[in-house]
Amino acid sequence: MIRKTFKIIVISIVIIVLSVFIFSDKKVVTDLESMIKDNTSAVVAPEKEIKLFLNNFVAAVKTHDKEKFLSCFSENATIEDPMGVEPLRCGGENGKIPVAKFYEANIAQNDVSFISKQDIICGMDVIRDALSQASPVPGITLKINTYSFYQLTMENGKIKIYHLRAFWEMDKMAKQFEELGPESFKVGMTMFQNMYKSLGIGGMIGYMKAGAGGIRDEGKKAVSSFAEAVNNNNIDKLSGLFKDNNSIIKFVGNGRQYNPQNYMSGPGKNTKINFTDIRAAGFFTASRFKMSEGNEAKQGIATFQFNKKTKKIYAARFYCN
Which of 52, 198, 208, 212 has a CA between 20 and 30 Å from the CA of residue 171? Predict the structure, then answer.
């Protein structure tokens, strides 16, 4: 009886979320190509200073130091956590209010910690592969594997975050809720109250959209097909995965950039690649990769961005130290 009641509650929540997504005023960015841009910071801080900055940022989260947390973001910062939500944008009359709201909704009432598996630093871009843990109520810990992308900049001589993106999957979080059974109601209500109080109904609608759409399994299959096409030196199959030949394949660490055609006629013809732990969020995927180009081996994290209309790849970026 309890299990049946729980399923009814879950189904009701899903219906509400879908209704909000369908009937709400959609303020999403329609031109996805404008959402992700390469880091154009003119100054690159020493790697040692970047690592120290990240450690201080994580410490601010863990110790609930709101002032220090806010100070880590630039005046025009943007947060997308997870990818697919309505971006929280600072600047202008808003100031840092969006970041403050994010803090109150996700950190202030949570015991949050991170177990880092790998950090990749490419200039002023940092990618962290970590296990994120949050305890919204005593005795309950939610765990989610996350790829966090920090695009950094220098502001008044100090390192700041100007774009934070997190890749994690809402359906994995929902599964943990289901496994909690009756306790899920208590946890869900606590999280709902925190988010509603901090973000308001508009902010919650923007958040819910991340769970109601996106590239999902179709994106994961495209990433696997990318590897298959490269490994078999199949230029037609690779080109068919991309929006057009103006789409990019970029290696962020060394700045090399190709379109699908010249990649396969260049370094791609001697490349073998394997993707693991593929995660989809919004119209993006991120995954670990291992690659060999002739005698050179490298590994890191890759992101794939998909066009919302065609669901084709228009940008593949590879990050490795």
Answer: 198
Q: Calculate the alpha carbon distances from 156 to 43, 75, 90, 159 in Å.
A: 12, 11, 17, 9
Q: Within the chain, how many helices (H) and strands (E) appear?
A: 9, 12
Residues 6+ apart with CB under 8 A from 259: 245, 246, 247, 248, 249
Architecture, CATH, for domain 2-211: Roll (3.10)
Q: Locate tokens 């496994």: which residue?
A: 179
Contact yes or no for 215/284 (Cβ under 8 A): yes
| 146 token code pair | 């996350």
Q: How far apart are the two ends of the chain, measured CA to CA in Å? A: 53
Mean of the per-residue pLDDT values for the chain? 86
Domain 216-319 has CATH 3.40.1370.10: no
Residues 145-156 have pLDDT tens digits of 999 999 999 999
DSSP notation for 24-92: S-----S-GGGT------S----HHHHHHHHHHHHHHHHTT-HHHHHHTEEEEEEEESSTTSPPEE--G
CA angle, 174 then 63 then 68, to 5°: 105
Is residue 263 within 8 A of residue 249, CB to CB? The reply is yes
Max avg pLDDT among 62-71, 181-190, 200-209: 62-71
Contacts of 120 (CB under 8 A, 6+ apart): 126, 127, 128, 129, 300, 301, 319, 320, 321
Do the beta carbons of residue 118 and residue 131 sit within 8 Å? no
pLDDT tens profile 39-54: 767 689 999 999 999 9
DSSP assignments along 281-294, one per residue: ETTEEEEEEEEEET
